[in-house]
Structure formats: structure tokens, C-alpha cells
Design a protein that fits this description.
It is a single chain. By secondary structure, the protein is of the alpha/beta class. It contains five helices and seven strands, in the order H-E-E-E-E-H-E-H-E-H-E-H. The chain has one domain: Rossmann fold (3-Layer(aba) Sandwich), CATH 3.40.50.300. The chain has a three-stranded parallel β-sheet with strand order 5-6-7, with helices on both faces. It has a two-stranded antiparallel sheet with strand order 1-2. The relative contact order is 0.18.
Length: 179
């Protein structure tokens, strides 16, 4: 899972993992104040941040698929770790927030530069703006084939639906001779 700082990656992995999750969270310090963008209302109360990865596992039994879930750090200063996590990945679930779409552009660019297929999951927050899917697609400059779904990272079924959308997308691409 990928996305900017505080978008819900850790929460989503905790929500769906069938094993105890691994977290590499550290306390946020004033040293990060100059580099991390914490102005948004949901980030001002944030006290910890992922500095390497989150990890969980999910088995989709009916499809015979095991997903290894890696959550990337949300800050650009951890990009070398992101590069390592992206190596060998089949796809990515990119979490976005309608109130701060611009924060997702850098992550989406990194994924696209690697040619990694992805699905965009709009994480629902109390302050989320109600934006029509067509408008979101345009603002995010999504390719027509890139899936766009709603997701509440705190809700297991909602997060599962987003992961199933990604998995379905990857399977569809695998069967497409033009991909």
C-alpha cells in the first residue's frame, strides 16, 4: 500500500491482516517539522510515523491467492526504502484523500515510473470532500483502465473490497496480451 503521510496505510494493513502485523513506527519529533508536511488537520495530532514498512498477510481463499501487504513510508525522505519495497511488487493500492489529492501525486508518479499497475482507493475521512468519480479521475489524471474505488481503511470489508479490486485488475492485466 502506498500513499502520503497519514493516509491510512498502517490502519488498512492492521484491518485486514490475518497475522499480527509488523510495524516500524517511531515517535515523530520536532526534527521532522521542517521536512514533513503536517499542516493538514488530520496530521496535526499524529504522534508516530512509519519509518520503514508495515507488513501483513491476507489469504483470498476462494481465489487461491496470498497477498503479502507492505505499507510504504509516506515521506519522500524515506524514498530509498520505498524503492526496495517496490522491487518485485506486482501492484500497488494507492490510498488518497479527497481533501489533499495533491499529496498523492508524487507517490503515483513513483509507481507509474516503475510501470507498476495500481488501483486508487479513496480513503474516507470525516472531512472528505464529496467528489464525483469522473472529477476524481480527471484531477488525479488516471488512465481509463485504472480502477478507482472508495475505501474506509478502518473497515475490514471496505479494505478487502479495495484489495480485491486491485487483485482483479492485476489478473485482468495478466490475461491481456497488450499489457
Amino acid at each position: 500500500m502506498a500513499g502520503p503521510l497519514g493516509i491510512g496505510k498502517t490502519t488498512a494493513i492492521d484491518t485486514v491482516s490475518e497475522i499480527p502485523t509488523l510495524h516500524t513506527d517511531e515517535v515523530m519529533t520536532t526534527a521532522a517539522a521542517g521536512t514533513d508536511q503536517l499542516a493538514h488537520q488530520d496530521l496535526q495530532a499524529k504522534t508516530t510515523t512509519t519509518v520503514a514498512t508495515d507488513f501483513g498477510r491476507l489469504t483470498l481463499e476462494t481465489a487461491g491467492i496470498i497477498l503479502y501487504l507492505f505499507g510504504t513510508p509516506g515521506q519522500i525522505r524515506f524514498r530509498p526504502l520505498w524503492d526496495d519495497l517496490a522491487e518485485g511488487a506486482l501492484g500497488a493500492l494507492v490510498l488518497v484523500d479527497t481533501a489533499r489529492l495533491q499529496d498523492s501525486f508524487e507517490v503515483m508518479s513513483l509507481i507509474e515510473q516503475r510501470g507498476l499497475p495500481y488501483t486508487v482507493a479513496v480513503n474516507v475521512f470525516p472531512h472528505s470532500l464529496d467528489v464525483k468519480p469522473g472529477t476524481l479521475r480527471r484531477k488525479l489524471d488516471l488512465a481509463p483502465h485504472t480502477p478507482l474505488v472508495l475505501c474506509d481503511a478502518r473497515d475490514r470489508n471496505s479494505t478487502l473490497d479495495a484489495l480485491v479490486a486491485l487483485t482483479t485488475h492485476l489478473i485482468t492485466l495478466d490475461g491481456d496480451p497488450s499489457s
